[in-house]
Amino acid sequence: MALAAAAGRPPPDLAAALDECMEAMNSFLCNQFSKSLEKLQPRTKESMYHALVYATILEMQAMMTFEHDDIVQAGQTMKEAQEICQRFRRKSSVTGSLTGLVSKADSFTEVELHAEVCYAECLLQRAALTFLQDENMVNFIKGGIKVRSSYLIYRELSSFIQSSHCTAGPAHVHLEGGVALGIGAFNLTLSLFPPRILKLLEFAGFSGDKEYGLQQLHEGATTLNLRALLCTMLLLCYYTFLTFILGIGEDDFTEAESLLRPYLIRYPKSAIFLFFAGRIEEIKGNISEAICRFEAGCSAQQAWKQFHHMCYWELMWCFAYKGMWKMAYFYADLLSKENRWSKAMYVYMKAAFLSMLPPEEPRPFGESEVQLFRQVSSFKQKIAGKSPPTEKFAIRKARRYKGSRPVPVPVPALEMMYMWNGFTVLGKQRELLEGTLETLMQAEKKLQESPVRSGSATITTWCPTRCWSSACCTWPRAGARRPSRCCAEPGTTTRTIPWSPGRSSGSTRFCPGSRRIRRRTAWKDPAPPKEPCPAAEKSWGGTGLWGMESPVVPPPAPTEGGTLHFQ
């Protein structure tokens, strides 16, 4: 009924609506989240841009809270925004025309073109909510259909604004910004898919050109338009998270800092930009400065606690890099109680940090790491119908504590840090590497003193600690290879293992025995030898790049039948 009543009123002027939405976004960046929504809400039933921005803010909140009710509410609001956009669209949609938008450019008004780009954005955001909310295959397919429809609209609009038929109106810069956001986001996201999947997507009509996607997003971020903030946030996420975690970028943060600098000048207390500023300092190895940024982001506002949770996650890792395990546990405990994104991961990290403390040291709140490890599997969840890989890893490791005789993981916090590519941060500061190496030397000494156990559990216990010890001792400077520590005697041959996401760029050299071994003679490699192992030559009593002494631990000895025992 509200939609029917609003349909009889004339739509507000497009330029005026865009100006009001820009003011609302300005309030949002000043941490005035409620004021921003109050500015938008009165016209959400009559203005497509008011409805879209209002629904976008609610979706951001829902994704951070991960509460079912918030996701449902955001989805319903986005559906209503899509209906508002549909009212302003031309009856025959762009994707339904065989000749495309370019040949019919003269018949589309400026309002109808803006309605198309807003409609495509609504489809894309509704698809994202569908993947988060529903786990069944039917809804997953429906979300995929929405994504394809959105992409086709963006593609037609991109062809139109680049053609000679395009006539720039008063709000043309906002239209270009919307198309740049959509085309850039699609190309950049799809370029991260594995090559085989990307070929299938390109066969289905999608495009995954990373350079073109970055170019489009940069154009959208550097012009004054309504989508500039979203373009900037996508680029910052790419430069500070995706390239770092996947190991596909260089140690150059110029692009991220140049994007962030004007926003920090204009919004020095914005929680969003303080978070990204802290993230840049963190991956540069400036841990103390990063902690100050994250704490400032938490104190900047109290309205949306969800922003605090993002800072808590980074603060947890910052204190882990410094070896302050109780402080890291404190933030993991806060996340496990207040956030719903991945409780299994939070509980696992709590147990991992407690495991790093000396056995005689009292545990905070009287919690036991063994009991926490046993609880991890009960918090398993699915996103887009799949369990997150990090949760699968944590649950698999926590199985070692299920039995009556738990098989402890030597340094679980460092293991998870390595999985998140955190050793790249350690490599930026000598002090961090020295502290981590000392922790690993103590863990190896403890393993030497513990009762010897045979089988695969012995291999999976010793190999990681030696690998990380070598990583600390031989961690190269920027641009060089990162050899992994070998679990073999000097002179053992190696083979090159292809790069995989989560590791440093280039090839990584592993000993043949550092992979899984199933009852065969130790370190016997069927592949022909290629060259001596550089990590092994440095690790047995030598010094690393930083001049630190490498721990000397006796190598494992093979026994009959191929089962490994350590001397």
Task: Please characterize this protein's 3D structure.
The protein has 567 residues and is mainly alpha-helical. Among the domains are: 1-170, no CATH class; 442-448 and 463-567, no CATH class. It contains 24 helices and 4 strands. It has helices at residues 2-7, 14-29, 33-40, 48-65, 68-88, 110-133, 137-161, 172-191, 195-203, 210-221, 228-246, 254-266, 271-283, 287-300, 305-321, 325-338, 343-355, 369-375, 389-398, 412-419, 423-426, 430-449, 456-473, 534-539; strands at 495-497, 508-510, 556-558, 564-566. The strands form 2 sheets. A two-stranded antiparallel ribbon has the order 1-2. A two-stranded antiparallel ribbon has the order 3-4. A hairpin with a 5-residue loop joins strand 3 (556-558) and strand 4. Helix 4 packs antiparallel against helix 5 (68-88) and helix 4 runs parallel beside helix 6 (110-133). The radius of gyration is 27 Å and the shape is elongated. The chain starts with a helix and ends with a strand. Mean pLDDT is 78; it is low at 1-11, 94-99 and 477-567.
What are the SSEs and their pairings?
Blueprint: H1 2-7, H2 14-29, H3 33-40, H4 48-65, H5 68-88, H6 110-133, H7 137-161, H8 172-191, H9 195-203, H10 210-221, H11 228-246, H12 254-266, H13 271-283, H14 287-300, H15 305-321, H16 325-338, H17 343-355, H18 369-375, H19 389-398, H20 412-419, H21 423-426, H22 430-449, H23 456-473, E1 495-497, E2 508-510, H24 534-539, E3 556-558, E4 564-566
Antiparallel strand pairs: 1-2, 3-4
